[in-house]
Amino acid sequence: MRKRIKIFLFIDALGWDIVSHYDFLAEQLPERRPVKMQFGYSCSAIPTILTGLSPSEHGHLGLFQFAPGRSPFFKLRKLDKILRPKSFWRRGRVRHWLSKLIKRLYGFTGYFQLYQMPFEKLGLMDYVEKRDIFAAGGLAPALNLRDILEDSELKYHISDWRRSDEYNINAACKALESGCEFLFVYTAGLDALRHRSGVEAPEIANMLEWYRKRVEILLETAERCGEVDFTVLSDHGMTPLAGTVDIKKIIESGGLRFGHDYGACYDSTMARFYYLTGAAEERIPELLKPYEYAGRWLTEAEERQYGIYREDRIFGDAIFLLNPGVQLVPSDLSLTAFNGMHGFAPEDVHSRAAILSNRRIPDNVVEVADYFGYMKSSIEVLKKA
């Protein structure tokens, strides 16, 4: 009997829209279906994939949380008065290198980027992904995929998320040749392209062709080593730009003081507000009432449905979610709009993720959180074999 091999290839932003439009890997992976995305961004979806838990359980929604009492950046608030001119320190490349410096200074092992978080607010913010979420104990107290694999005693391979797609696919081939039975291969290039190019750009077809060729190489390598179950997973699709709204300007012109009356995290598709005074709780909804054509306030029932409701309100006391395609500009992520964005309501047709396989996909895999159970059961199959 030939050795069994399980490969899970994660392609960030491989939405069902482009899978169906381009018949992506239809010959190699004929079993396929759309999957409901996890509410939020990749920083919430990937912890859900690695644990099977919702953001309300693993604690990851946005990268930043308004948390004055536990901000590790309190001393960095003075940078706002030192770093001049502000326009220079807002440049993407400058922020990127400054993020590397701060990451090393604080000993963070996870993904860390300042993006466009203002320095005057940074000292009131906590950062969620301080630890490498792919490492053993990276999402403790929750068990993640690596914790399960470490306990299984299987020979396994998990990609280095810091490396390029080309590197990770080549590393996976080498891992197969060295005898690995379970592989989780990470790629993120498509996500970056779809943010830049939107939904229907010709570059997308070229990148999908690049992935197709690499999948064929991975499959060929794996089939020389054993009997292969090959599955492609994604976390979300991408919604084309339909408009922008400057919620930061609206709130900041309302006579309230940040850090005294309220706190806020301005993500690209939602604004998360923390009420520090009754005046802010009353005033902020009033300020946004004329702009409810652009979005809506999430109800408690919706927060529970999306898996983001928490009694401690670390994600915000109230969340204003923008309509599909409408982006918050400027935001803590970017000063300009993206041609494509994700993080809207999971019901949006462009938001749907995808799963593709050369084997029958279990019927209970219908949303991103279900991937973990699928991978865990695959590990159990390998252990028995």
Overview of the molecule:
With 385 residues, this protein is of the alpha/beta class. The longest helix is centred in the middle third of the chain and has 24 residues, at 202-225. Helix 8 packs parallel to helix 15 (370-384). Strand 10 (262-266) and strand 11 (270-275) form a beta hairpin. The mean pLDDT is 94. The chain has two domains: 4-53 and 142-239 and 347-384, 3-Layer(aba) Sandwich (Alkaline Phosphatase, subunit A); 56-131 and 242-337, no CATH class. The chain contains 15 helices and 16 strands.
Kindly state the mean pLDDT as a whole number? Answer: 94
Helical segment tally? Answer: 15
Straight-line distance between termini? 10 Å
Under CATH at level 1, the class of the largest domain stands as: Alpha Beta
CATH H-level homologous superfamily name of the largest domain: Alkaline Phosphatase, subunit A
Gross CATH architecture of the largest domain:
3-Layer(aba) Sandwich
Question: Top keywords for this entry?
Answer:
alpha/beta, 385 residues, 2 domains, single chain, four-stranded antiparallel beta sheet, six-stranded mixed beta sheet, globular
Which helices and strands, and how do they pair?
Layout lengths: L3 E8 L4 H7 L8 E5 L6 H10 L3 H4 L5 E3 L12 H4 L3 H4 L2 H15 L12 H4 L2 E3 L17 H8 L3 E3 L6 H13 L4 E6 L1 H9 L4 H24 L1 E7 L5 E2 L2 E3 L1 H6 L9 E5 L3 E6 L2 H11 L6 E3 L2 H7 L11 E5 L3 E3 L11 E2 L11 E5 L12 H15 L1
Parallel strand pairs: 1-6, 1-7, 5-6, 9-14
Antiparallel strand pairs: 2-16, 3-4, 7-16, 8-15, 10-11, 11-13, 12-13
